[in-house]
C-alpha cells in the first residue's frame, strides 16, 4: 500500500483537473463535418492536416490500408506531411511559421510542454468532456496519464500505452553454453560472479559478461543500479516516499565494488565502457561473451541469425540478479513511450480532432490500431485473434499495412506484436513481466527555471558521476576515496537537484487544492 500512495494521490489530482476542465469548457456547437467516431452510422469526411514522424525501416505511405480503415471508422482523412530530415528541425521551422498543421507528432513531452507553454498547442484537458473514452482510459492508466501533464497541470500531448513494451531492457544469457557446462542462471551478483569465473576458466580467451555500454550508457546504468536497489541519478524511493540521489548511497558503492571486481578478474572486456553495437554483436555471436544486457527483441535478433550456422545457439531471457542477498530481483521500468500527437491551438477543427482522437482510446480503436481489420489482416479462431499467414514478421507487417506507425495509434494491444514473435521471445516477455518494479518512476514536468537547473547543475553532476564510476571500476581511483567522492559530488548541487524534483512532484499534489 505504501508504494502505491503517490500513484493514488496523483490520480486524484488528475481527475480533479479533468473535472474542472469539463465544468468550465462549456458546450460547443457541432458542425456538419463532426466525425462520428466509433458509433456506426453515416459519417461525413473531415480532412485534417498532420505532421507525422517518418521511419526509414517502414517509411510513410499514403497508400497504407490503415488510413482507409481509420477513415471508415471516424470519417477523418489525414493530409500528411513528414520531415525531410530530423523531426525536431522540421518542428522548429513549422513553429516559426504562421501555418501549423492540425495534428503534430512530437517525440518527447519536453517538446510538447515547451511549445504548449508558448501557446502553440491546445490543452487537451479543456476538451475532456468531449472525450469519454480518454477519460475512462486515464482512470485505467493513471501513471501514463499524469506523466503527460505539464508543469502547470495541462496536457499538451495525447498519452500512449502498450507500445512501450518494445523498450524493455533485460539480462540475457547463452542457455546452450550454460547447459553444456552444468551452470545455472545466477539469482544474485555473487552467484553471477562465480558463474562468470567458471566460464572464464572454461573459455580463457573470453570475457563472459559484455554489453554495449558506450552506445546506450543511461540504460545500462539503470539496469545496474536497479539490481542494487538504488538509482542512477535522482530517483523516487517508493518505500520512503521521497526523492533520493543514488550515486552517493552505500548500495551504489557496493555495485561499483562488484563491477571493479569483474574488471580486475577479466570477466568483462577492458574497454567495456566504450563498446559500441557492432563490437558487442561480434563478441556475442562468436562465443567470446555469454551474458549481456540489452533490449528484449535481441532474443530473436541473435537466435534467428546464429541458428542458421549453429542450431544449438540459444540466447534467452535471464532473471535479473539481485545485487545483494535479500534484495529483490528487478529490471528497470523502461516500457513506456515518450512521443505522441499534439493539437495546434490555431486549428479550426478542434472539436473534430478531439472526437477523432477519442476513438483511439476506445476498445474498437485499440483493436484497429493493433490488429487492423478482420478478414484483411487478421482472423479470429476460438476467440483469439491471429494475423493472416502472409504476415510473419512485425517489421514487414508495419511496412505493408501502416499499422503501429506514427499517427496511427495511442493505445496498443501488445499481444498483436507478441503473436508474430518466436516462442523464445514470447517466453521472454512473459518472464520479464515478473520482474517489473512496483511502479514506473514518476516523471514530473518542469518549469523553465527548473529545466535550467537540470541542464546546468544536472549535467555537471551527471558528468562527474560518470567519470568517477569509470575511475572506480577501472581502478584509477581507489575505492578508499569514496567518502571524498561523495563530498565532491554533493558540492556540485545534488541537494538542489533533489529539491527540484520534489517541488515538481508536489505541484501535482497541490493541483488538488487549486482545482477544488
Automatic annotation (TrEMBL):
What InterPro entries does UniProt report for this protein, alphabetically? Bact_solute-bd_prot1, SBP
Where does the secretion signal sit in this chain?
1-21
Which Pfam family is one of this chain's hits? SBP_bac_1
* Keywords from the named record: Cell membrane, Lipoprotein, Membrane, Palmitate, Signal
Q: Which PROSITE patterns match?
A: PROKAR_LIPOPROTEIN (PS51257)
Gene3D superfamilies attached here? Answer: Periplasmic binding protein-like II
Look up the domain of life of the source: Bacteria
What this protein is called in its record is Aldouronate transport system substrate-binding protein
Name its species. Paenibacillus favisporus
Amino acid at each position: 500500500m505504501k508504494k502505491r500512495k503517490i500513484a493514488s494521490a496523483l490520480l486524484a489530482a488528475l481527475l480533479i483537473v479533468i473535472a474542472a476542465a469539463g465544468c468550465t469548457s462549456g458546450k460547443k456547437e457541432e458542425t456538419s463535418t463532426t466525425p462520428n467516431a466509433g458509433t456506426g452510422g453515416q459519417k461525413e469526411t473531415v480532412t485534417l492536416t498532420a505532421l507525422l514522424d517518418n521511419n526509414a525501416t517502414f517509411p510513410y505511405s499514403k497508400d497504407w490500408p490503415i488510413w482507409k480503415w481509420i477513415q471508415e471508422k471516424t470519417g477523418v482523412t489525414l493530409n500528411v506531411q513528414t520531415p525531410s530530415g530530423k523531426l525536431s528541425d522540421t518542428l522548429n521551422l513549422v513553429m516559426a511559421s504562421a501555418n501549423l498543421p492540425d495534428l503534430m507528432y512530437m517525440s518527447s513531452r519536453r517538446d510538447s510542454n515547451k511549445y504548449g507553454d508558448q501557446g502553440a498547442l491546445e490543452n487537451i484537458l479543456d476538451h475532456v468532456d468531449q472525450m469519454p473514452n480518454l477519460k475512462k482510459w486515464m482512470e485505467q492508466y493513471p501513471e501514463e496519464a499524469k506523466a503527460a501533464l505539464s508543469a502547470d497541470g495541462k496536457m499538451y500531448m495525447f498519452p500512449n500505452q502498450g507500445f512501450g513494451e518494445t523498450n524493455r531492457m533485460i539480462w540475457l544469457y547463452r542457455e546452450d553454453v550454460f547447459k553444456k557446462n552444468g551452470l545455472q542462471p545466477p539469482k544474485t551478483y555473487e552467484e553471477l560472479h562465480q558463474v562468470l569465473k567458471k566460464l572464464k576458466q572454461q573459455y580463457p580467451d573470453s570475457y563472459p559478461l559484455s554489453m554495449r555500454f558506450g552506445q546506450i550508457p543511461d540504460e545500462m546504468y539503470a539496469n545496474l543500479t536497479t539490481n542494487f536497489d538504488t538509482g542512477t541519478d535522482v530517483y523516487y524511493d517508493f518505500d520512503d516516499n521521497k526523492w533520493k540521489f543514488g550515486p552517493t548511497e552505500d548500495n551504489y558503492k557496493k555495485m561499483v565494488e562488484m563491477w571493479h571486481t569483474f574488471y580486475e578478474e577479466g570477466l568483462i572486456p577492458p574497454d567495456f565502457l566504450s563498446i559500441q553495437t557492432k563490437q558487442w554483436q561480434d563478441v556475442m555471436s562468436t562465443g567470446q561473451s555469454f551474458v549481456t544486457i540489452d533490449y528484449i527483441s535481441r532474443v530473436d535478433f541473435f537466435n534467428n541469425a546464429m541458428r542458421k550456422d549453429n542450431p544449438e545457439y540459444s540466447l534467452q531471457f535471464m532473471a535479473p540478479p539481485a545485487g545483494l542477498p535479500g534484495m529483490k530481483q528487478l529490471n528497470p521500468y523502461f516500457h513506456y513511450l515518450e512521443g505522441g500527437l499534439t493539437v495546434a491551438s490555431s486549428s479550426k477543427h478542434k472539436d473534430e480532432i478531439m472526437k477523432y482522437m477519442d476513438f483511439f482510446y476506445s476498445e474498437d480503436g485499440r483493436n484497429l490500431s493493433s490488429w487492423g481489420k478482420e478478414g484483411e489482416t487478421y482472423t479470429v479462431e476460438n476467440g483469439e485473434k491471429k494475423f493472416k499467414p502472409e504476415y510473419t514478421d512485425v517489421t514487414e507487417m508495419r511496412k505493408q499495412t501502416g499499422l503501429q506507425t506514427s499517427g496511427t495509434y495511442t493505445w496498443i494491444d501488445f499481444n498483436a506484436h507478441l503473436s508474430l514473435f518466436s516462442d523464445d521471445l514470447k517466453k521472454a516477455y512473459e518472464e520479464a513481466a515478473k520482474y517489473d518494479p512496483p511502479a514506473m518512476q514518476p516523471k514530473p514536468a518542469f518549469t523553465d527555471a527548473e529545466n535550467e537547473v537540470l541542464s546546468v547543475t544536472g549535467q555537471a553532476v551527471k558528468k562527474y558521476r560518470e567519470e568517477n564510476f569509470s575511475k572506480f571500476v577501472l581502478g584509477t581511483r581507489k575505492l578508499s576515496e569514496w567518502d571524498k567522492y561523495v563530498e565532491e559530488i554533493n558540492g556540485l548541487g545534488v541537494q538542489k537537484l533533489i529539491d527540484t524534483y520534489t517541488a515538481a512532484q508536489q505541484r501535482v499534489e497541490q493541483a488538488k487544492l487549486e482545482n477544488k
